[in-house]
Amino acid sequence: MYTSREDIGYDFGDSSKGGSKTTQPNPNIDGGWAWMIVLSSFLVHILIMGSQMALGVLNIEWLEEFNQSRGLTAWVSSLSMGITLIVGPFIGLFISMCGCRKTAIIGGILNALGWILSAYASNVHYLFITFGVTAGVGSGMVYLPAVVMVGQYFQKRRALAQGLSTTGTGFGAFLMTALLKYLCVEFGWRNAMFIQGAIALNLCVCGALMRPLSSKEAVNEKCIMTNNSEVNHAKALSHSTDTVKSNGVLNGEQEKKEEATNEEVLDHVQHIESGGESRSGKHMYGLCILKRVSQLTVTVRKGFGIWYSSYFGAASLFTNRVFVAFIIWALFAYSSFVIPFIHLPEIVKQYNLSRQNNIFPLTSIIAIVHILGKVILGIISDLLCISTWNVFLMANFTLVACILILPLMQTYIGLAVICALIGFSSGYFSLMPVVTEDLVGTKHLANAYGIIICANGISALLGPPFAGWIYDITQKYDFSFYICGLLYMVGIIFLFLQPCIQKKQAREKSTEEAQV
């Protein structure tokens, strides 16, 4: 197991230089405006993830309005939730070009537009486009920047900050469910969606709060990260370290060439602009447009270059084997968390536990303890003596054990205990951005986390239908939990073993070099 970014071996820097410099810590790192970023991310989780958790209210209204099958109607909410996560890699491109703030503001407008247009839906297929795709893409454009910005502003308290911000999902599930129920009863579902679209415009405000770190703050942050890594000072894994160090040189040369070319273009435009002061205002207006277009072209080229190199270039994230194992884990993880929400009501009915469940629903137990789990696991992970990676793995092993045990419980008390453990251990979702940043560094966080949530989106989109298909074949809910739990276990074991194998290979290589 590894405990620092050097153990994982993807981030890089000249530690010899970094150690000789003493930089004054910036007040906005782990404090100051950083807590406004947490507030912004918290509100984003309420408005995006909370709203999606409350779509069951609208699903009932759509069934009554359009008289379509449950399976077809359910695809509306599934598309919205799945696309929010699946578009992650492409949102990384927007962040590379425009930054988190502009991406989030555009996403807030798009999400609100999706809600408002859905109020005029004439059939379910119309909702596929307006709500599933339009609102889903808008949600993804806000969600990823909200996570990335917290990672940029926090170093010592990253896990706690991510835990606090992601608790908005749980609070949003309660608030948005109550709000949508009230709006549907008082105004009808169409007006409710229109009002919700107006509320979603607050996402633009959340995006405006995502103030980017200045160049000075970014330098201080990098120095802080270097000093923190020197405390652990573990030996880097050979494959990842060699790859990234070489990539760092290539990226630096490429950026210098691009900056030189960009400066030549802008200088040329400015020269034409200054030489044409005596020309007419119409020509000056044209030169201003040309300058803006040139600046936009430079920004797009630079952003696309960073995005492309992260996925397909020499500095591809896929050269990091641990990160690839993390992606494989993500393909199985999310469905194992969603499936209990889908099948628990039927299991309760099968065991004649409806009376107890109506008093205190098992799904509510999961949701409430899930909020506590995110905060507590975040606090534990930020302790100096505890590795975030180890906490992440232990929570995963606990969750998969609960998934496999749940079908064996036939009493309400037994199910309630297992559901509480599921809720608490699934709090590791708040650690996912932290682990991702440890794997690839802050610079690659947007693109890397985009891939991870894309894998989660695929899992969320295909997991429930797969579980339903298993039930249709076996006529038992037990096998849905067992098969999904075993697939989840394979992903965890693969993720657990990969760093150990790489560290062993690194030791063998260093031994061979020492003998030579």
- Report the portion of residues in β strands: under 5%
What structural class do helix, strand and pairing data support?
mainly alpha
Q: Could you spell the SSE succession in H and E letters?
A: HHHHHHHHHHHHHHHHHHHHHHH
Query: What's the Cα radius of gyration?
Result: 25 Å
Largest sheet: none
The coarse silhouette is globular
Which CATH-level-2 architecture of the largest domain? Up-down Bundle
Please, how many domains?
2
End-to-end separation in angstroms reads 28 Å
CATH class of the largest domain: Mainly Alpha
Q: Would you give the CATH topology of the largest domain? A: Growth Hormone, Chain: A
Would you report the number of β strands?
0
Please state the average pLDDT score.
Answer: 76
Please work out how many helical segments DSSP would assign. Answer: 23
The portion of residues assigned to helices is over 70%
Description:
With 516 residues, the protein is mainly α. The protein folds into 2 domains: 28-212 and 299-313, Growth Hormone, Chain: A (Up-down Bundle), CATH 1.20.1250; 316-502, Growth Hormone, Chain: A (Up-down Bundle). Helices cover 81% and strands 0% of the residues. It has helices at residues 5-8, 15-20, 34-53, 55-66, 70-86, 88-98, 100-118, 124-153, 158-166, 168-187, 189-200, 202-208, 215-232, 238-275, 281-311, 321-350, 354-359, 362-381, 388-405, 412-425, 432-440, 445-474, 478-515. The chain is globular. It comes from Nothocercus nigrocapillus. It holds the Pfam family MFS_1. This is MOT14 protein. It is a multi-pass membrane protein. It is found in: Membrane.
